[in-house]
Design brief:
By secondary structure, the protein is α+β, with helices and mostly antiparallel strands. It contains twelve helices and twelve strands. Strand 3 and strand 4 form a beta hairpin.
Length: 440
């Protein structure tokens, strides 16, 4: 109880000292403000950069803990993968193929589904030739059809809502509905790059499944053309044009022999890994040995890089903080020098040395906490302004909440600065001899 009373007395007397020297307190806070704000900014930037980087990785690879299984092409590969996940909500099978959307009989502006930034920059038409020893490309002598309003995209057929594993950001319209019977007019969702293609080239709603360079396969003249219906757009973190469609609707337009040449992928929760023995049994010993299984662990993979960058910036912030600590130290020493007689008189009437040190230390701690509060408020306001001013061009700044970790870092920095800046003046105040009171 005595310690509690001394602590309360130190805080009260320290507060009275701050109120009596407002200008000096304000100058001390200014010298410390930039240092604490630097710590808050570093911590907030680190957390936001971590979130943004993980969000991009999760969209392209999956959330941490997600199990991804690669199924090789073969007579039973894709069909077996689709069968083992039928009716399950904790696992999604997907497979992909190329498609050409736009005017038929024309060469796409991005052959092979390349990003649109390289559109109309393709070289001569080539084809891949494989023999028993290796694969190589050969320039075709055939003159390709002229380019026009047609774009090559990657079509991804999925059996369920893959957003539970890869959190795509829905930007317009709606996501795929996997209820009801499949439609002969495929419902598709575009990613950003595919949306840009539809906007830039005014593509007609005609889709030929398969690449333009697959000879007599899908996509060749005479192949059936589906009429897709665009129902939404998403951000999937990809750079090439991609459209997402229900797997059963895509299968309506892919012949069985073409499906055998497609590889598939299973994306599942860890608890759904029990379907792997069933899949291996369906594939047979040879194909089952080619399964590739991996578990997404992005935080561990990128954590070291983020930590290194964080500590580099923390070192820079610490230098700025030390300048503020030096300011508090100078002000504290000057204040103790002016109050020598006061502290000696308190010692003469029985005030313990520890309480004198506590009075001085309480002043610097209060200054540190007030400065931390001001720095945190500035960080909150700054982040809100940045979101409003730059959020339209920077999606990572849209609807961003101030990270609580930055607030904790600011409070800790303020307390550390208060202790470092007030410790030496507090020791000096505690060592003032009682005889000094005779000067008064």
């Amino acid at each position: 109880m005595g310690l509690s009373g001394r602590f309360r007395s130190a805080v009260v007397i320290g507060g009275q000292g701050i109120r009596a020297r407002k200008l000096r307190t304000f100058l001390s806070m200014i010298s410390l403000f930039l240092g604490v704000l630097a710590v808050v900014a570093v911590q907030a930037s680190s957390v936001l950069a971590n979130r943004a980087l993980l969000a991009d990785i999760e969209m392209s690879e999956g959330k941490d803990g997600t199990v991804v299984v690669g199924v090789p092409p073969g007579p039973k590969g894709t069909s077996s993968a689709l069968e083992v996940v039928r009716g399950r909500t904790d696992a999604v099978a997907s497979f992909s193929t190329q498609a050409i959307i736009g005017e038929p009989g024309l060469t796409p502006v991005n052959p092979g589904g390349m990003p649109l930034r390289y559109a109309d920059q393709a070289g001569p038409q080539t084809r891949m030739i494989c023999d028993g020893r290796s694969c190589y490309t050969e320039v075709s002598d055939e003159k390709p059809p002229p380019r026009g309003n047609t774009v090559e995209v990657l079509v991804v057929g999925i059996t369920g809502d893959i957003r539970q594993f890869r959190p795509f950001q829905l930007e317009a319209g709606s996501w795929l509905d996997f209820g009801g019977e499949p439609s002969l007019s495929p419902r598709i969702v575009l990613n950003r790059e595919a949306t840009e293609a539809f906007t830039r080239y005014q593509l007609p709603a005609e889709m030929s499944i398969g690449s333009a360079y697959q000879g007599n396969g899908p996509g060749a003249p005479g192949a059936p053309h589906a009429t897709p219906r665009v129902i939404g757009t998403v951000h999937d973190g990809g750079f090439q044009p991609v459209v997402y469609v229900r797997a059963d609707e895509l299968l309506n337009w892919i012949p069985a022999e073409a499906l055998e040449s497609q590889s598939a992928s299973l994306t599942m929760a860890p608890a759904a890994a029990s379907i792997l023995p069933t899949l291996r049994a369906k594939l047979g010993p040879e194909a089952a040995g080619q399964l590739y299984t991996t578990t997404v662990n992005s935080r561990e993979r990128i954590g070291g890089q983020l930590d290194m960058m964080r500590w580099i910036f923390y070192g820079m912030a610490a230098l700025v903080l030390l300048i503020g600590v030096a300011g508090i130290l100078n002000v504290g020493l000057a204040t103790v020098g002016e109050r020598v007689e006061e502290f000696a008189l308190r010692r003469a009437v029985g005030t313990p040395r520890l309480l004198l040190a506590g009075i001085v230390l309480a002043e610097t701690l209060i200054i540190g906490l007030l400065t931390a509060a001001a720095a945190i408020a500035a960080g909150v306001v700054g982040l809100k302004l940045a979101s409003e001013l730059f959020g339209a061009n920077r999606p990572t700044l849209q609807n961003v909440d101030f990270p609580w970790e930055a607030g904790v870092a600011g409070v800790v920095a303020g307390l550390v600065a208060g202790v470092l800046g007030g410790l030496f003046p507090a020791i000096r105040a505690a060592r003032i001899p009682i005889a000094t009171v005779m000067r008064a």
